Amino acid sequence: MENINIQTVKQVTESVSVLLRYIASGFIAVLAYIFLYTDYTYLQINNAWVLVILAASIGLITYALHISLLDKLFYKGKAYRLYEQYAHKCENIKNAIAENAKIMNEKNSPDCCIHRPMTKSEYIFILQTQTYLRNASLNDTVKHIQRQMEQRLSLLAFLYCTLYQIIILIVYFLVTKFVIPENNEITSEQAVNCSFLIIGVCILVAFTHKFDYRICRREIWAIAQFYQSVPSQSVTQQDNMALSSITQTQTGSGQSKTIKTLLDVVKQHLDTISKDADNAKKIIG
C-alpha cells in the first residue's frame, strides 16, 4: 500500500511538472486578460471548453518560443557565465570540457581545441549533455536528483512564459488605449488593474531572476558532484552484449530450474509407486 501511494505521488508530481512547463502559463494569460479588460463574459460555462483550448494553445506556443529563442538569453546565459566562472576550479568540469572538445573535434584531431577558449554554445552544449546523461544514469541517486531539478526547471519555464504573456498583454493594452485614438477610453477599474499587473510583473521579474540564478548554480553543482562521462560506442556495444548474456544466462538457469523441478516430481511419483508395489507384494504374500 505504501509503495502504491509513493508511485501515485510520483505520477501526480510528474503530471503537474508537465502542465506547468507546457500549458499552465496560458491560463494565467487568459485570467490576466479578463482581469485587465474587466470582461467577465469569458468565465461563463458555455465558453469553458473554448477557454481551455485557447489557454492551452497560448501556453504551448509561448513555451515553444521560450525554449527555441528566449531561453538562450536568460537561463542559458546565466548558466554560461557560472560555468565559465567555475570551469577551471573543478576537476569534473575540466573533464566535461575536455571530453566535449574531443567529441566535437574527433573527425579532425581529438586534442586540437581542449586548450582553446570554449565558446558560449559549446558551454551550453556541455550543460545540456550532462543533463541528458543524468536523466539516463543507472545511478538511482543521480536520477532522483535530476528529477527534482527538472521539476524546478518546469517551474522556471512557467514563470518565464507567464512574464512574457503578461508583459505583451500590458503593452497591447497601453497601445490600444493611448496610441490608437478610437480606443482611448479607459475606466478607473482598468487603470487600477493595469497598475497592479505592472507591479506584479516587476516583483515576478525579481523573483524569477533570483530563482533562475539558484537553478543555474545547482546545475553547476550537479556537474561537479555527479559528472557523467559519455560512453563510447564500443563500450555501449559491450554493455549490450553483457546484458544480453546475463539475460540468456538467467533464462537458461530458469529453464534448468524448471526441468529439475519436473524431474524431482517425477522421481517422487516413481518412489511412491515403487513403495505401493512393495506393500502390495507383502500383502499378497
Strand residue percentage: under 5%
Alpha-carbon Rg, integer: 31 Å
State the separation between the terminal residues, measured CA to CA: 63 Å
Indicate the overall shape.
flat
How would you characterize the largest beta sheet?
Answer: none
How many domain modules? 2
Helix content: over 70%
- Rounded mean pLDDT score: 75
DSSP strand count = 0
The secondary structure category is mainly alpha
Helices, by number, come to 9
Order of helix and strand elements from N to C terminus: HHHHHHHHH
Low-confidence stretches: 107-114, 249-257
Characterise this structure.
- The protein is an all-alpha fold and 285 residues long.
- The protein has helices at residues 2-22, 24-37, 48-68, 75-86, 91-104, 120-135, 140-178, 188-225, 233-284.
- It has two domains: 2-230, no CATH class; 234-285.
- The model is unreliable at 107-114 and 249-257 (pLDDT under 50).
- The longest helix has 52 residues, at 233-284.
- The termini are far apart.
- The radius of gyration is 31 Å and the shape is flat.
- It is built from nine helices and no strands.
- Helix 4 packs across helix 6.
